[in-house]
Amino acid sequence: MQITEIQDADIDAVLSMAAELSAHEGMPEPDLSYEKLHDVLFGSRALVQGRVAHHASQPLGYILWNIGYDMQNGARTLNIIDLFVRAAHRRKGVARSLLQGAAAHALKKEYRFITVQTFDQNEEANAFYPACGAKLDNTKTYYLTIKGMSAL
Questions:
Q1: Is this prediction's pTM over 0.90?
Q2: CATH number assigned to the domain comprising residue 54
Q3: What is the pLDDT along the chain (152 residues), one digit of tens a residue?
Q4: Domain count for the chain
Q5: Distance (Å, whole) CA 10 – CA 98
Q6: Could you write out the DSSP letters of every residue in 36-89?
């Protein structure tokens, strides 16, 4: 297995795997396109980074993150957006390797935390992160949609 930074040539595979992740979570297919993902990864205002795991040039999984800030600790954080491994390759160390790569990046940049959100019903993810040493905090996530933002 080889893990590399996401390249332009990986975008179609990441889009396909993102759709698989949404299906796994019982969500509709994401409103993504090559152009949208390319822009956030490589555009002039790029805000997402990530890695892809391959074996024999076949994509096995991916991790995407952005950088946040924690006011309580006055420190930057690495916020995982997605971590996904195709079903046939789960429980073989792929997800842990992707997470280890993100952790190495965070440590190198002197970020204080890695954060990740999961759906309650995603039992695999909710078992995986604690097995990697992650602790569950007491926060809730609220979303303001475009409609909600406009109503403000």
A1: yes
A2: 3.40.630.30
A3: 999 999 999 999 999 999 999 999 889 999 999 999 999 999 999 999 999 999 998 999 999 999 999 999 899 999 999 999 999 999 999 999 999 999 999 999 999 999 999 988 899 999 999 999 999 988 888 989 999 999 99
A4: 1
A5: 15
A6: HHHHHHHSTT---EEEEEEETTEEEEEEEEEEEEETTTTEEEEEEEEEEE-GGG
